[in-house]
Amino acid sequence: MALVSFKVLFLQYVFFCLGFYCATLWAGQPGEIRGLWVVRTSLTSPESIDRLINEAADTGFNTLIVQVRGRGDAFYQSRLEPRSNLLSTQSAGFDPLAYLLEKAKPRDLRVHAWVNVLFVHEAAARKIRPNHVLARHSQWAMVPSSLASTFYSAKPTFPRSLERIAEVIRKNSGVEGFYLDPAEPGVREHLVAVCSDLLSRYAVDGLHLDYLRYPDPSFGYGRAALDSFRQEIDEKLKPAERQRMARAFTRNRLYYTQRYPRQWAEFRRRQVTDLAAALYRAAHGQRAGTMVTAAVKADSEIAYSQKFQDWKLWMEEGLLDGLCPMAYTRSNDAFKSQVAIARGLSFGRPVWVGIGAWQMSIQSTLEKIAITRNLGADGFLLFSYENLGNRTASRSAPPLPRLKAFLADSSNQSDQDEGEKESALKD
User: Kind of pairing, strands 206-210 and 379-383?
Assistant: First the structure.
């Protein structure tokens, strides 16, 4: 009889814990990341940063992902890259990141430094400054396939070569601007140095990597990439075949990539993965405890085949400490699917779900926050702070007050559930 009673009590306890767990998922887990992506335009003055800090903390957010490297420039004191033009009206002594960190700590806000990795400038070559990475190393720019032969034979020059690339970019609506090519030997070294420099002097909570990908399959045909890929293929060929391929290559610089498309795609995926690994090692080597996360395309198939971003492998091999899938869809069903897949491929590491709040109603945003909790995600990130604080054509009022009420209710419910759990355990 005592044994039966014990089993009954044990099952009651198990069902209570399961019920509490489900309620906690809905109400917001303890330690849940409630984050905002903050675009660099909000870091241009002490006043704008003060407003950001106050609004984020008062609304109930606990994490800021702040864009400190937007276009190959710096919103901090960098030893390697130019200070952003957006700070031209401020004194040279104004350090946006240092100021933000000073203000964020008293409000219990975590700060992650958001770095646009490979995307470094809009398609406006004439506006590239002489001290920008593309001006100093024009050969590092990703080359479109249509210019592969031209740029293979002639060393890129600034700004003429970049102007020709810009013409191609402007005709391709899916390409944001100039990207650095991770197959260029100097690119990885430069980016590791940039992130190491940043982390050596700023006590941020994390390094957040964005644009760690190719813009689309038609880019990445620079001489260094073509030569490296050719060398890999040649090592597997017999001498006669290698000679035949070499002759064809002199007539068509894309010959190897066209003959071996599957291997070419894998080559490019490996360039991005190797860069991710190098940045991860550098971050942890420079500042122990730094959390390295990446914003990735939420559709894993598109990420893998079109952007050469194998984030499943990154999670499996521990090249990230957390995943931030950009689940930018208005559809709740599509959103659920993307979140579930990201959770399933996270290998036990945190998943902070990116919500495209800029393109939907506040009600839809709140629904998606609830979905992330139901599916057991570790937190959410809204893109972006700049959109949430303002009225728009589709909104009669700023969304932040609605968010504040929603998050406050979540916290109160979570606290109440925690109290009920402790009381039940004592009983």
Answer: unpaired
